[in-house]
Write a structure and sequence with these properties.
The chain is of the alpha/beta class. The protein is 27% helix and 23% strand. Strands 1, 2, 7, 8, 9, 10, 11, 12 and 13 form a 9-stranded mixed beta sheet that branches. The chain has a 7-stranded mixed beta sheet with strand order 6-5-4-3-14-15-16, covered by helices on one side. The chain is globular.
C-alpha cells in the first residue's frame, strides 16, 4: 500500500510537471506573437483589402519617390472599393525606421499622408528591412496610439469568418527575423542586430508551423522579403529553404510581400507545388527595374512569371469562399493586370 501511494504521488507530480512544461512551451511560442481573434466583416460573404508596401519614403530631392502620388490614388480607389483593411508588406518608414512611438516621422510619413477618410481603416503593419534599423518595439507600441496602425506584435494572425462558415486566416510575419536571424543575407546590416537573434527566429518558425496547422478555407501569408522575385533584391534563399516548405506543407494559397519596388505575380513551375507569389512593393519608394547583381537569381528557375512591372501602384483584393480576385492598380487608377485565384482544394 505504501509503495502504491508513493507511485501514485510520483505519477501525479510527473503529470503536473508535464503540464507546466506544455504551458511554458506554449507561452514561449506566443511571446512575440499576438493570439488570433475573429474579426467581423462589413460584407459577411466577402473580404476586401488593398495590398501596399515600401511606401514611407517621404519626399527626397533627386529621388523618384512617389509616396504622395500613390497615396492620392489609393484614397480615390479606396473610396469606391471600400476595403475592410489595408494589408501592408513592410518598409513603412524609410530610411531607418522609427526610434520611439512618438517619432515625428509617424506623422509626416504616415498620418498626414494617409489622412483621407477612405483610408481610415486598419492598416495591418509588418516590419521591412528598413524598419528593422529602428525600434520594432516602438512600432508595436504605436498601435496603442493610432486607430489606423494595427500591429499587435512583431508577427501575428488575423482570422475572419465568412457567412458561409469558412475561415480566412492571414499570417503576418517578421521576415527581418527569418532572413537576418543568421545575418547571412546581403541586405542584413549591423544596425539590425538589436532586433534579431537565432533563438527568436526559431521561435517564430515554430509558432508559424503550429498556427498554419489550424484548419481554414483560406491561408494567406504576408512578409516583406520575397521568396522569389525577378526584380530588385530577387529571391531570398533563407525563405526558400525554411519558409517555403512550411507553406507547401500547409497548402498556403498566397504569399504577399514587398521589398522589391515593383508589382509582380509569380507561380510555381509544374510539377512544383506552393502558393501564388504576389509582390506589392510599389507604394512610394523609387522603382526597382533591374535584378540586383547580388541576387540569387538562379532560384527564379522554380517559378513562372505571369506579370511584372517596375512601376508605382498597389493591389486590390476581393475574396469569397471560393476565389480571390486581384487587380494591379497604377498611379492613374488603371488596372494593369487582373487575375483570379481559386482556393486550394
Amino acid at each position: 500500500m505504501a509503495l502504491f501511494a508513493i507511485w501514485r504521488r510520483s505519477n501525479s507530480l510527473l503529470a503536473l510537471l508535464s503540464l507546466a512544461l506544455i504551458c511554458i512551451m506554449f507561452s514561449s511560442l506566443q511571446s512575440s506573437a499576438s493570439p488570433s481573434r475573429t474579426h467581423t466583416l462589413a460584407r459577411p460573404s466577402m473580404l476586401k483589402f488593398i495590398v501596399i508596401g515600401d511606401f514611407g519614403s517621404g519626399t527626397v530631392r533627386g529621388k523618384e519617390h512617389e509616396q504622395h502620388a500613390v497615396a492620392t490614388q489609393l484614397a480615390t480607389t479606396a473610396a469606391s472599393f471600400q476595403p475592410d483593411f489595408i494589408m501592408t508588406t513592410g518598409d513603412i518608414i524609410y530610411k531607418d525606421g522609427i526610434k520611439t512611438a512618438a517619432d515625428e516621422q509617424l506623422r509626416t510619413k504616415f498620418e498626414d499622408v494617409y489622412s483621407a477618410q477612405s483610408l481610415q481603416v486598419p492598416w495591418q503593419i509588418i516590419p521591412g528591412n528598413h524598419d528593422c534599423h529602428g525600434s520594432l518595439s516602438a512600432m508595436v507600441e504605436y498601435a496603442s496610439k493610432s486607430s489606423q496602425w494595427d500591429m499587435p506584435a512583431r508577427y501575428y494572425v488575423k482570422e475572419f469568418v465568412l457567412d458561409t462558415g469558412e475561415k480566412v486566416r492571414i499570417f503576418y510575419l517578421d521576415t527581418c527575423l527569418l532572413v537576418c536571424g543568421s545575418m547571412k543575407n546581403f541586405r542584413c546590416e549591423e544596425s539590425m542586430r538589436p532586433n534579431l537573434s537565432l533563438k527568436q527566429k526559431q521561435r517564430q518558425l515554430r509558432w508559424l508551423k503550429h498556427a498554419l496547422a489550424v484548419p481554414s478555407q483560406w491561408k494567406i501569408v504576408v512578409g516583406h522579403w520575397g521568396v522569389y522575385s525577378t526584380m530588385g533584391n530577387g529571391p531570398t534563399p533563407e525563405l526558400v529553404d525554411e519558409l517555403l516548405p512550411l507553406m507547401r506543407e500547409a497548402e498556403v494559397d498566397v504569399y504577399f510581400n514587398g521589398h522589391d519596388h515593383s508589382l509582380q505575380h509569380l507561380v510555381p513551375l509544374h510539377p512544383l507545388k506552393g502558393p501564388h507569389f504576389v509582390i506589392s512593393g510599389a507604394g512610394g519608394y523609387e522603382a526597382h527595374a533591374e535584378l540586383s547583381r547580388k541576387a540569387a537569381g538562379y532560384l527564379n528557375k522554380q517559378v513562372d512569371t505571369i506579370f511584372r512591372k517596375a512601376t508605382h501602384g498597389f493591389v486590390t483584393a476581393e475574396l469569397d469562399a471560393k476565389r480571390l480576385v486581384l487587380k494591379f492598380i497604377d498611379l492613374n487608377g488603371g488596372v494593369m493586370y487582373q487575375t483570379e485565384i481559386g482556393v486550394a482544394e
